[in-house]
Amino acid sequence: IIGAGCYSAVLQHGKAHECKVIKIANTTMDPWLDYYNEIVVPFKTNCHTPEVSKVYIDEANDYYVANMEELDPECYDLDDEDFDKGTLAEDISQLVVGEITQSEFEGAWEEYRCVLFPWGFGEFYKVVDALIDGTDCLTSEDEMCNEMPAEETRKLDIHAGNIMFRRGCVVITDPWCNLAVDDHPSMETYVEESNDKNITENYYINC
Known about the structure:
This protein has 207 residues and is an alpha+beta fold. It has helices at residues 32-40, 85-97, 102-109, 113-116, 121-134, 140-145, 187-193; strands spanning 3-4, 8-13, 20-25, 52-58, 63-69, 154-156, 163-166, 169-172, 176-178.
């Protein structure tokens, strides 16, 4: 197991040099499926979205499995002690929410542009604009005014844990959660409490 969050766990798939992983989720209500369908697929040539080769959805048993590329949790292509992934994630979140402008974002990250944004900021902004359009709740005020079912409402959830890197390039892996996230049984908790860590035996994986 490489990592786990509220809705899913990520496992190594195949040989290490193949750089592939399997994402197993414990609900089909995970907004990652929306991200996949609405942004990852339409922007599949954009370097800032993850490469997903296959998704298997089992509605009857309420889970899904995705075959994906393995990404780096840190930007190993930058040898700079001043670079901070947490600050980058926070600035991306603020950019989507509208708390900082594109000019302010570029001013903060121009020094690292060639590595983090190899196709230029414009390509990254295509994903940002799609996130703005697809997010139901950008702020806490939006949450208070929301009239949709909580489990169907997409909330912005960009933090250091779902910003990863492909040869230095920033990749947004999982930008949304739903408003009912606190009530959902956490896959991360299950993995931490599991004695054998063998969560795959409970799922049918169609690789």
